[in-house]
């Protein structure tokens, strides 16, 4: 069992069903923003998979027009998410598997997405992941990926403070790579970057809630500097054809 998986299992084991249901009812700003981006395609596409779903909250709040599949290598995350989906009467398919080698036939889905996943892998691994995402994606399908924006000063400083100075205090997730648009990884897989958007500024400032004076300084500076927001979202198409 690799170190990252051990870290994620440790986080998941501390969660209760009630915690996830509460998050479903009161999702983070970035989850709502990502939901809105994905729901724009709910009239066009049907079969969607969240790869590396963790608790699966983003999938659960997506439009029920989608046929949803949730995949994670962490069996505790899948068990927890399934329990929540059952309580909410959500029709979802759950799979425990490695995202580098998924148990699906080629061209099984219209949309492959995740958030807070890709930044934990280096460039070579990201290239491999995009290849596997593309394999299970139908022609003209979409890969939608969200990751923290390390080019936003408030986020970068919060990350460095918690991970490097405070040694992970109040920031339990594994280390992150600084990513802009994955241009090289996308080109190597013959994919097309359709758009790159940055969302969720309020969540960005919320990262400083335990250091409120710093939070207020950033909010004041934002009026003059206009910091970039928290979540970078890439919408990647499998080929050049337009619907």
TrEMBL record:
UniProt KW Transcription keyword: no
Residues annotated as domain Methyltransferase type: 50-145
InterPro entries in the record: Erg6_SMT_methyltransf (IPR050447), Methyltransf_11 (IPR013216), SAM-dependent_MTases_sf (IPR029063)
GO biological process: methylation
GO molecular function, one term: S-adenosylmethionine-dependent methyltransferase activity
Annotated keywords: Methyltransferase, Transferase
Entry keyword Iron: no
Protein name: Type 11 methyltransferase
